Amino acid sequence: MTTITGVRSILTAPDGIALVVVKVETDQDGLFGLGCATFTQRPTLVAQAVDEYLAPLLEGRDPANVEDLWHLMYVNAYWRNGPVLNNAISGVDMALWDIKGKTAGMPVYDLLGGKCREAAMVYRHADGRDPGEVLENVERFREEGHLAVRCQMGGYGGRESGSDRARDRLRAGRPGAYYDPDRYARSVVDLFEHVRAGVGDDLFLLHDIHERLAPIDAIRLAKDLEPFRLFFLEDPLPPDGLGWFRRLREHTTTPIAMGELHNHPLEWRDLVTEQLIDFIRSHLSQLGGITPARKLAALCEAFGVRTAWHGPGDVSPVGHAANLHLDLACHNFGIQEVVSFGEPLYEVFPGTPELRDGYLWPNDRPGLGIDIDEARAAEYPVGVRTVEWTQSRWPDGTLWTP
User: Fold this and answer.
1) Is 156 a catalytic residue?
2) Burial (CB count within 10 angstroms: exposed 0-12, middle 13-18, buried 19+), residue 242
3) Is 207 one of the annotated active-site residues of the chain?
4) Catalytic residue among 109, 123, 156, 184
5) Which of 195, 288, 361, 401 would be a feasible disulfide site paired with 354, CB 3.0-4.6 Å?
6) pLDDT, tens digit, 9 for 90 and up, residues 14-49
7) Whole-structure pTM over 0.85, yes or no?
């Protein structure tokens, strides 16, 4: 029997974003697994959970028993479903699937039933200071062969501009990322009028509200965006807004995507079974890894909901590889979010999936197909700092969901 001999975290920031990777080592020479445990706003807390709590719990156990070990990690702390513990569990879980694939000599997608497709269609992010600049960036992505582009203008919720005495007094002592929700909602309609007129109908367009609006204003915006045939509108409401999702569904035909903040099955169960969303956007390391994600994908398939796993820059290449293996194996795949991988990421993570012609391509190696150069990873230390973009505020200083 193969046994686990070590579990440890590796922190690195090759592209300036804090990443947390878990390495599970075994008593078989050269056999180890990698997983993504990135919680970029609290990276050192996740690392501590892995190194001080999960490592002694798992050492000496059989890495083949992925399901049993997942539940062991899940209940061992007694309290559960927090993002720190979920990310720590996820890193181990992905690593165990990586080991299982390497042991079998098969890519993880083969363990999950084999390929439904050869590569995963992705969408990219186009931002800008005004509609013209956003359109230029959209056109650049289309020229690179991309089929879908998410359009934002000034980041999530836009940004306030200008200054006056009342505003300065209201902001005194309350730093943050200020934005005007009403101005933002009106600007989004103008943005999509401009972009759709510029690119025509043969490009998928998306937008992320990021929970920045009051629920009734999010419903109004979803209705206003119907003429532009969005591929989906992301995170119009917070995860606990189930009643508002029912109202949203009644009032608009704009496809809805949701899920990157989900921690617990009760947060997505009714959204899926009542068919209140069209795409599930869960973040694999927030969710707990591949083990719960494959079950969620199966639940979604039964109710006609497609997958669109969260794939921003604060997902390591290991996490992107895990997303991709699920994308290839799940029949109800919809689209995959992805970012440009900088050269340092390719150097630190050999085997990073290839982004080409609007699709993300696997390398077909056993396991997740990805490695880590720990010496190079150590060249990019993680710094802990206070995050400002999550301190989102309305014009009078009121904190709002980021």
Assistant:
1) yes
2) middle
3) no
4) 156
5) 361
6) 999 999 999 999 999 999 999 999 999 999 999 999
7) yes
